[in-house]
Amino acid sequence: MYMKKTIIALVVIIIAGFAIYFITKNYSTNKGSMDTGSGEVIETPVDETTKTAEQMAADQKNVPVVVIGKSVENRDITAYRYGTGATELLFVGGIHGGYSWNTTLLAYELMDYLKANPNTIPANIKVTVIPVLNPDGLNKVVGTSGRFDASKVSNDTSVVTSGRFNSAKVDLNRNFDCDWQASGTWQSKTVSGGDNAFSEPEAVAIRNYVLNNKPSAVVGWFSAAGGVYASSCHSGVLSATTDMTKAFATASGYPAHEDYNYYELTGDMMNWLAKINVPAISVLLTNHTDTEWTKNIAGIQAILKYFTK
């Protein structure tokens, strides 16, 4: 009888031990991530209703994420990296926030594509995507600074236009150090370029990222004119920029332009990149609503091929 009771007690202890183990494991899983012990952090499933904007942006399993800075309203400006090569290619959307919301959707399409097709990234290349440089302007128009559906875009044209600027009402693409002026031009309008070059935290974030990481080339998306534009800042167009402009334009079907001469540009981000000798092109979508994915993925693949060793 004593032996029987002992066996029963041991069985109860073992069952209780397993129960505690599985409860603890499930709790840890629901908390978000765990350390494997080798220094690698593995993302674990998170309840969809509690995901942050950054988690929803790409379901970040195995995708390195870097917050490069904050907006005026303290929203994250986030970079997503794909591939591990030494040659970094940087793609930036949402520079004009909610006014050019389709450029952010295009950036998310690229992120989805790279995650689903990792083998398209050559071994020597790392692709970094910043889907929205102006999260406050995007939030004003679509109600979030993360991934969104086009149905969420405001129908109020004045709201959409105001989403071009950051929360300090500065046009970020007039806040960089190439011909910077406090008052810039956008079409026939006068816009704020900020108190000085890099006065805005969003511009500082991308400046610091570029200076610290030294990408080999940058592609910036804007809307809307339908073309590929080379960058320069009074020193001529870099030969690699010329090659990138031609490669992207030929593959995509967009017309290629050596410069942007519709009106005077001051404090332009892409021209500042040229000033510090970083090859950079501006890709302007044809309108403010379509991502023109087929054109752009063809252009992106041409850029990847150009930088492949």
Question: Can you describe this structure?
Answer:
The protein is an alpha/beta fold and 309 residues long. The chain has an eight-stranded mixed β-sheet, sandwiched between helices. Strands 1-2 form a two-stranded antiparallel sheet. It has a two-stranded antiparallel sheet with strand order 7-8. The N and C termini lie far apart (77 Å). A hairpin with a 2-residue loop joins β7 and β8. The protein contains nine helices and twelve strands. It has a single domain, classed as Aminopeptidase, CATH 3.40.630.
Question: Using only CA atoms, what is the Rg?
Answer: 24 Å
Class inferred from helices and paired strands: alpha/beta
Say what oligomer this is.
single chain
* Distance between the ends: 77 Å
CATH topology tier name: Aminopeptidase
- Poorly predicted runs: 18-51, 56-60
CATH architecture: 3-Layer(aba) Sandwich
Question: Quick one: biggest sheet?
Answer: 8 strands, mixed
- Total number of distinct structural domains: 1
Which sequence of SSEs, written as H and E, runs from N to C? Answer: HEEHEEEHEHHEEHEEHEHEH
